[in-house]
Amino acid sequence: MAEPAPAVLTVAQMVAAEQALFDAGTSVDALMLRAGQGAGEMIWRIGGATPTLILCGPGNNGGDGYVIAEFLRLKGVPVSVAALSEPRTDAARHARANYRGEVVAWADAVSRPQFVDCLFGSGLTRPLEADLWERFAALVSSARRSFAVDLPSGADADRAVWLNAPLQFEHVLALGAWKYAHLLEPVASDCGTVSLIDIGVETHDHGVARLRKPVIAPPDATSHKYRRGLVAVLAGTMPGAAQLAARAAQASGAGYVKLIGSGDAPAGLAADLVWERADDAAAIRKRLADARIGAVLVGPGLGRTPAAADLLEVALAARHPLVIDADALHLLEQFKPMIATRSSPVLLTPHHGEAMALASSAGGTTESDNKVAQAQALAAAWGAHVVYKGADSVIAAPDGQAVIADRGCAWLSVAGTGDVLAGCIAARLAHHGRPFAALAEAVWLHDRAARIAGPAFSALELAGKLPAALEACIER
């Protein structure tokens, strides 16, 4: 059984988590010592005796820097601290007093091979002044190795945006919990390697977490093709996309996959895929009356014609769990009342443009929020489970639960990979019927398959790597 993933916290939630420690008897000084020594240990492991410059700000992030400096000094590291100003909190003043090494004024800071940013951390909400930022950026860029403690100064922790120009760090040491900017673009890509430093705060009850590798049970002795999950994929004007999704569903553990579409089976249809002809809405409705169907997928290659809208309407009227992808998302606005009356779950898979269109049709705008808030708003507005896709994919449930899948494989930026993800989602949903878990499993499997495939793969090649990704999750 997988352990619960550490939560992703807002700045306010992190302050409250720390306050709970203080209320239980931990002092601010003790917590700062714990955080600074934990960060110092990580810096020491990575950088060894590399000469180091630590930039300390006036607040508690700067106090962490003084603790780190003393830790490294005692390890024999040539370390210098540059102070932006005198400490302004009691704990930071105490940390400064306990540091026995060199402190220079900010204006006198000299670049060293290793740089540690303890200027402002995660509390910053406004841009730094231009001259300060220019000098700060120059010191970071001139170092061979750079660390940011808690969060790079200049980034907004909650909105996950740069307040100044983007600045790349090799390592970011998150104190106590993940913040949104560690995991969401555009800041996440500039954070390099992110490490979580345990400082003893309780972080598991906030509803948002970082995606972890799922644990998936293999079929048992009583399994058969219907218990493994029957997936029905509705084929539209471009049946190739539906076939690709169907192949991905097969490769993701489904026991039986069938395509439902008009006319004869497409030329070259794989022998292990079933084609069920249904030339009109009544025929499709009859095909979908099969109670053994575990999930229906509609959208890949559907088109946006009136006939496509009719097909979507039939899918929504069926009683099966439903995955809505691609073209079907663009047709969904007119059917919003049907979603509200469904008893079976609906799963939506928008990329950015589709997410904005869904938000607009639901009567809201989410551009000013971070991506998690956007996904949560979509899930609540549509009464559906949502995976908001991208380099940072966010999975959200109508009740607000969310997970972030950060740093997705960039080689996934090729045509057809969204169809593969949709088929994978449908397979996992048909297998166990749990929509949030199906999305989380599929997003993880999709990314792992891409990493197994290596560079420059096709969507069909990606689908072929899903069994290897699935094997990595099998509970032995």
Describe what you observe in this structure.
The protein has two domains: 200 residues, YjeF N-terminal domain (Rossmann fold); 247 residues, Ribokinase (UDP-N-acetylmuramoyl-L-alanine:D-glutamate ligase), CATH 3.40.1190.20. A ten-stranded mixed beta sheet has the order 12-21-20-19-18-17-16-13-14-15, sandwiched between helices. A seven-stranded parallel beta sheet has the order 4-3-2-5-6-9-11, with helices on both faces. A two-stranded parallel sheet has the order 1-10. It is of the alpha/beta class. The relative contact order is 0.10. The chain contains 18 helices and 21 strands. Helices cover 40% and strands 18% of the residues. β19 and β20 form a beta hairpin.
> Strands of the biggest beta sheet: in what spatial order?
12-21-20-19-18-17-16-13-14-15
- Measured as a percent range, the helix fraction is 25-40%
Mean pLDDT: 94
CATH superfamily of the largest domain: Ribokinase
- CATH fold naming of the largest domain: UDP-N-acetylmuramoyl-L-alanine:D-glutamate ligase
Question: Given the C-alpha coordinates, what overall shape results?
Answer: elongated
Summary?
Helix content is 40%, strand content 18%.
Ordered list of secondary-structure elements with their pairings:
Elements (H helix, E strand, L loop, with lengths): L7 E2 L1 H13 L4 H20 L4 E5 L3 H15 L4 E5 L6 H9 L3 E4 L8 E5 L11 H13 L2 E5 L5 E2 L4 E2 L8 E5 L2 E2 H4 L9 E5 L10 E3 L14 H4 L1 E5 L4 H13 L4 E6 L12 E4 L3 H7 L5 E6 L7 H12 L4 E3 L2 H4 L5 H6 L4 E3 L3 H10 L9 H12 L2 E4 L4 E4 L5 E4 L11 H16 L2 H19 L5 H6 L1 H6 L5
Parallel strand pairs: 1-10, 2-3, 2-5, 3-4, 5-6, 6-9, 9-11, 12-21, 13-14, 13-16, 14-15, 16-17, 17-18, 18-19
Antiparallel strand pairs: 7-8, 19-20, 20-21
